[in-house]
Design a protein that fits this description.
The protein is of the alpha/beta class. The chain has helices at about 5-20, 35-45, 60-65, 75-85, 100-105, 125-130, 145-155; strands spanning about 5, 25-30, 50-60, 90-95, 110-115, 135-140. Helix 2 links the parallel strand 2 and strand 3.
Amino acid sequence: MTEIIPFAHIEHFAQEWHHKEGGSIVFTNGCFDVLHRGHVQYLEAAKKLGVLLLVGINSDRSVQRLKGEGRPLINQEDRAYLLSRLKPVDVVCIFDEDTPEELIRRVKPDILVKGGDYALDEIVGRDLVESYGGLVRTIPYVKGYSTTAFIGRIKKQGSL
């Protein structure tokens, strides 16, 4: 099962999943503008923490606000499609806010995951998830893989 679920329907989906399946929902999020090996390894590690991996991705407007003019390079529909085709990803949901806080509130994941480049106290939604007994985890950052650095290398070579 790999689905792209609209933001307006994600709360109902999560409630149904918990009611019918009973397995843990792992949640992570990001821009995923230019998909690379670091993203895939991160998502594989996140999936191992639970049963269902739900990935929230920032909308095009959100990415532009966070990353600046010229971003994203890949539109939200294509980013969602690519992520939804990765083996570890079960559900993708696009959100328009700058942080995933409202999406986390709607999903109520059992496990909230971010990359190791975040300190636990910097993770948006940590307090909420821990308030109902959920877990918050970080996964080690895959050194040498960064979308921003990748785009910078392309620009330096004059190809972008």
